[in-house]
Amino acid sequence: MMTPRQMSEDRGGAGGGSSPPFRHTPLQIIHVIGNFLRIWSVYSMYRYLSETGASVILFIFSCLVPSSILFLALQKPWKGRALSNQQVVPSVINGAITALYFILWGKGLKSCGPLRAILAEYSGAVLGVLSAALYGRRGHVWKKVGGLIAMLASFYFLSQGPATEDQTEEVLGMGAMAVPILAGILSALRRVIARRVSLKNQLKRRLNAITITSATCFLFPVAMWDFIIGSTSGSSVELLFSTWAFFSTILFGVILIFYVDSIAEERLHMVFSSPRHLMVAGGCIIIMEIVYKMDFSLPGFIICSLILGFGIYEATALEHGKKGSFQQSDPLSGVLEDQIQMSPLPT
């Protein structure tokens, strides 16, 4: 007679062998849809900025104001267990980094286009090279340096225009690509700080509301200065934004993507600077490039994406096993683990 434990094991071996791969399928679908909607909002934002010539800073500020209000209404960081200064102060500082990231990313989007701006966000993986140089083994350092070289090569090819079929298009050069690349590094840094401060998922969401609100406050004087300069110079400042570009940036580009990335990180163990995340974004970019009828070369884009994915793989992989398995982490994970061991934060 079979025991209940033997019966459950038999069922798991007979009918449950294929369940693990499909267990997270709904979450993976949510991740794909969330990233597609976010990238759609990026293309609508670029179309609006390029056609109207509106101020990037004013547009981003106008999107962050309602986003911060919604985050505060959803998370209510003033309720529940009181947050300590060791948690609030770094979140406020992270708000300044987030504000600078939005400014640079918006400028890079307007000057380089959505395809290059989105791919440049993965430049934050170069922080993994710094992590290996400070806390990794020498063999891992050389692998990460190779990944860094591959990433720089992909960004160089993007700056020369391999993703476009129109040969008459002006070559951007690495100088123009430096702006979205720096924005990508700042984006990775703000994620690292947020993860360092918030040791629990619920705490992470509460502190994110503080970070976005802080970023809005830091961006306020810059937006007002841009408004004053724009109005005194005689150029018309567009304040009536396109409805779709405005609401899609708020709902999909700021709010929804935060929860989608949190689910992917907590449940799917998929960090932003990873080849899997790049593969999802690449598929969405191909669809949007075709829909918006951009000057797009599919072979050039695939080559650049493959080189970039290889660079991210080498820059973020901690350990390659004999069977081909590997462990990936966020940039500066070694630094964070060392800091957590030295000075643990209160939960």
From TrEMBL:
The keyword Nucleotide-binding does not apply. SUPFAM superfamilies: Multidrug resistance efflux transporter EmrE. It is a multi-pass membrane protein. Residues 1-20 are annotated as: Disordered. It is found in: Membrane. The chain crosses the membrane at residues 52-74, 86-105, 117-134, 141-159, 171-189, 209-229, 241-260, 298-318. The keyword Transferase does not apply. Keywords: Membrane, Transmembrane, Transmembrane helix. This is Zinc transporter 5. It comes from Dovyalis caffra.
